[in-house]
Amino acid sequence: MNVYRYDENPLLTPADVKPHRPDYEVIGVFNAGVAEFNGEIILLLRVAERPRSNDPTIVKAPVFNPITGDLDVVSFHREDIKYDFSDPRTIRLAGQDSFIYLTSLSYFRIARSKDGHHFTVDNQPLLFPTTSLETFGIEDPRITKIDDTYFISFSEVSPVGVGTGFASTKDFIHVDHHGMMLAPENKDVVLFPEKINGKYYVLHRPVPKSTGAPEIWIAESDNLRYWGNHRYLMGLRSDHWDSGRLGAGAAPFRTEQGWLELYHAADENQRYCMGAVLLDLEDPSKVLARTNQPILAPEVDYETDGFFGNVVFSCGALQDGDTVKIYYGVADTSMACAELSLQEILASLTYLED
Hints:
Layout: E1 4-5, E2 24-37, E3 40-51, E4 58-65, E5 70-77, E6 83-84, E7 90-93, E8 99-102, E9 105-113, E10 120-121, E11 137-146, E12 149-158, E13 161-169, E14 175-182, E15 186-191, E16 200-206, E17 216-221, E18 228-234, E19 245-248, E20 253-254, E21 259-266, E22 272-279, E23 287-291, H1 301-304, E24 312-320, E25 323-330, E26 334-341, H2 342-347, E27 349-351
Antiparallel strand pairs: 1-26, 2-3, 3-9, 4-5, 6-7, 7-8, 9-10, 11-12, 12-13, 13-14, 15-16, 16-17, 17-18, 19-21, 20-21, 21-22, 22-23, 23-27, 24-25, 25-26
Keywords: Glycosyltransferase, Hydrolase, Transferase
GO molecular function: hydrolase activity
Family: Belongs to the glycosyl hydrolase 130 family.
């Protein structure tokens, strides 16, 4: 697979984004949703910020307070054995898998570009936490245009779990909020860009606890508000690059062969890569083919080193003829872009037996 990484990569880093308040610092600008609007490429950036601290022994957790509309801060001492700080993203109780706080709070801000290589970041957030279901932040937006409306799906994080929020805009200035789309634990939701046989479709990723694994499902709707007919779509593969967890990445786009979905997956070592799957045009619950190897993997330094290294994670891509432009987060830190050939991606697919 020929991959052209932009010479300007990383396109945006934390140093390029001013924090939304002076007592915070930006530690991540990544996992952006992507759209084209008014002759510009729009990146809806996930911006992760944390409270500034001059004491390296103290870990601070920012929390949105829906009553005051402000951010509260909870502090912990690194040597407190009741807590586990081994993952820089989270604070956990010792011996527990679930986190009790995040070390940063994420929200969304727009970056704009005429050429897709050089971006200017808006000064103010487009979307910021507003409800009790978003007290730990909002993350990983995906954008799908249907007619004249851009629909945004994203993760809402709070002590009661990670669910999927849903919003829409026509101008990337005014945003309508539509509440929680899918209840916890669910994320990595992408909306298809058109109706298929009279139905809207989404890919989503529930996280079962009793049995099962973090894998991709599909659901449908008559009205973009209520989703049902949930079906299992595709799963993990042992001894492969996608053996640990997987989820939808960019919104699917139509090709002559089928709907092409660029998805992310991790192995047991938390190495995140991108792959591709082909779905039937008339019945997207039917998987036709899948890549056995990643189409994009962490290889260069800005992908392997960062806040959480060995990660390439795309929430949006643009197709221009045979060129697929994958905008992706790197190491949970910055944004990059790579161009791949659509025909090469399709040729790399392995078709499933009927």
